[in-house]
């Protein structure tokens, strides 16, 4: 689903200044610690102007990352059928984005993240707070378990994008999306719902 809202008409120089400041603040402080006021200060604008152009902090972050979709809406759709086949649906959806013209910006960001710590922080914040966090919220996953399960899912998603679109290792680079979803989906499903290894179970128990 295409992301609706967020960007509004306005002075392009002001909007660009806000977006540039947002990327810097989000990368430096992380999504949760970044405030609209801090971003406004970095951009040299009134905080109300950010709300006018972008609405919420989530919408600003999506705009700063040039995201073609709103992950919260997408995760809700993927969860409509519950856990059954969720891993395959998740892989199929992400491949649908990465393999399309809408995925060009995301792949460029991933390329940069490999060698640029600043970009890597933005990518990490996006995956953890805008995608995987919404999976936890939609599914009602135990937060203590999610702290271990979600990074495993993230490693699989980003690793797949890296292998398919940056390093371009065959046959992964050219396999149809459905074939990859069938092959990798069960691994995602196991990360999300399977029994945790003993060492991780001890970590979960200790965090409660």
What is the strand and helix layout of this fold?
Elements: H1 12-29, H2 36-43, H3 47-54, H4 57-64, H5 71-78, H6 86-98, H7 104-115, H8 117-139, H9 143-166, H10 177-193, H11 198-207
Helix pairs in contact: 1-2, 1-4, 1-8, 5-8, 6-10, 7-8, 8-9, 9-10, 9-11
Detailed description of the structure:
The chain has 208 residues and is an all-alpha fold. It folds into two domains: 12-64, Orthogonal Bundle (Arc Repressor Mutant, subunit A); 71-207, Tetracycline Repressor, domain 2 (Orthogonal Bundle). The chain is 72% helix and 0% strand. The protein contains eleven helices and no strands. It has helices at 12-29, 36-43, 47-54, 57-64, 71-78, 86-98, 104-115, 117-139, 143-166, 177-193, 198-207. Helix 1 crosses helix 4 (57-64). The radius of gyration is 18 Å and the shape is globular.
Could you give me the name of the CATH homologous superfamily of the largest domain? Tetracycline Repressor, domain 2
List low-pLDDT spans: 1-10
Helical stretch count? 11
Strand percentage = under 5%
The structural class is mainly alpha
Count up the domains. Answer: 2
What integer is the average pLDDT? 86
List keywords for this structure.
208 residues; mainly alpha; Arc Repressor Mutant, subunit A; Tetracycline Repressor, domain 2; 2 domains; globular
Short description:
This protein is mostly helical and 208 residues long. It is built from eleven helices and no strands. The longest helix has 24 residues, at 143-166.
């Amino acid at each position: 689903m295409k992301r609706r809202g967020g960007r509004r008409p306005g002075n392009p120089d002001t909007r660009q200044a806000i977006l540039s400041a947002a990327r810097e603040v989000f990368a430096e402080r992380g999504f949760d610690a970044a405030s609209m006021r801090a971003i406004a200060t970095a951009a040299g604008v009134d905080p109300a102007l950010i709300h006018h152009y972008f609405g919420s902090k989530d919408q600003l972050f999506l705009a700063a990352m040039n995201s073609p979709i709103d992950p919260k809406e997408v995760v809700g759709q993927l969860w409509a059928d519950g856990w059954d086949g969720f891993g395959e649906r998740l892989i199929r959806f992400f491949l649908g984005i990465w393999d399309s013209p809408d995925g060009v910006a995301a792949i460029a960001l991933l390329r940069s993240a490999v060698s640029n710590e600043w970009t890597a922080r933005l990518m990490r914040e996006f995956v953890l707070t805008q995608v995987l966090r919404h999976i936890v919220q939609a599914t009602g996953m135990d937060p203590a378990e999610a702290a271990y399960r979600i990074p495993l899912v993230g490693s699989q998603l980003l690793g797949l994008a890296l292998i398919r679109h940056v390093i371009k290792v065959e046959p992964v680079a050219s396999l149809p999306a459905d074939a990859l979803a069938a092959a990798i989906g069960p691994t995602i499903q196991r990360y999300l719902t399977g029994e945790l290894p003993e060492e991780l179970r001890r970590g979960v128990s200790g965090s409660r």
